[in-house]
Amino acid sequence: MAKVKGSIVVDIEKCKGCEVCIPACPTDVIRLAEDVNGKGYHYAYMENPDNCTGCVNCAIVCPDGVITVYRKKVE
Amino acid sequence: MAEKIINKDIVKEENLVYKKTDLLTDKPLSYCPGCGHGTAHRLVMEVVEELNVQEETIGIAPVGCSVLAYEFMDIDMQQAAHGRAPALATAIKRLYPEKYVFTYQGDGDLAAIGTAETIHACNRGENITIIFVNNGIYGMTGGQMAPTTLPGMKSSTSPYGRDVQSMGAPMKMTELVAQLPGTYFVTRQAVHTPSAVRKAKKAIKKAFENQKLKKGLSFVEIVSNCNSGWKMTPLKSNEWMVDNMFPAYPLGDIKVPEE
Ligand SMILES: Cc1ncc(C[n+]2csc(CCOP(=O)(O)OP(=O)(O)O)c2C)c(N)n1
Ligand code: SF4
Ligand code: SF4
Ligand code: SF4
Prior knowledge:
heterodimer; A: mainly beta; Alpha-Beta Plaits; two-stranded antiparallel ribbon; 2 helices; 4 strands; 37% strand; elongated; B: alpha/beta; Rossmann fold; two-stranded antiparallel sheet; 10 helices; binds thiamine diphosphate; binds iron/sulfur cluster
């Protein structure tokens, strides 16, 4: 059966670490990094990248529009 | 710092399913982390992009945190004196009736200093769209009480909570303008979850498309958070909004055109 796999790319320098994307993800992919960006914000990253289905939920709730989403069918 | 790219086999142009619309400029938004203004801006620009009317759209920025909306929305825009956006939009729409004209206003702007402009533009049935971001407070100036502030809600000018007896009850502008014959479509939305975002975008799109029908004003309230003014984390402010703002400002369509 064909499955979909997704991935997000966060624009780290523009992320404000607000966490709004985290509960929006149905598969618990996102966390805030220990590390901070140039503005001092902990930025979002994929802690569980294999869970991502590319559903775009995180990207459409991100107030700063810093998430880009990719999705691909895999065998 | 470079963007960290994991899943290199998936992150390819042909697999792209969502990116920020080009109608938002690359300037970092001036809003606090987690503020709904950013999402509301993006939805308006996504609608303009989907309708392919970038060249035919004129927006009016308010006074308030979103005063700089013209820096972020890559369309023709003008900034109005506090509360006067519906008057400016009226003039522009009457001069350019074929353009899509919208105002973007906070609750201090629309429901306090601009109450008269709002109500009369709605009553005249101007063929414009009003996007009304209601966060129950004056965000920009440091969290003062707005006409929309909830009973008992603390603000810098109601430090013991809004006392309805002396300060009046929250003003429900959206229900109020729905009473006027000049409004054609009136709805209340939010942008804190994926499903709310999808619904809000549909409503904004309808509110823009309605301008071609020339049947009156379309009014979209977006109940939003002001985590800085409310003195909460962004996630906490969204929870608080659901528990406290939504009962007072229930989501959904208030006036829908008869088919
Ligand atoms: C004529 C005038 N009066 C007062 C102000 C001060 N002022 C600036 S923003 C603002 C309130 C904005 O609140 P709101 O519309 O709710 O927007 P928010 O910042 O919450 O998005 C006020 C009173 C002003 N700029 N001009
Ligand atoms: S919602 Fe956007 S800005 Fe907020 S933490 Fe997630 S990626 Fe960063
Ligand atoms: S695209 Fe969907 S599954 Fe992937 S991180 Fe975002 S919300 Fe989670
Ligand atoms: S003060 Fe409030 S409304 Fe203004 S940007 Fe910050 S959170 Fe948003």
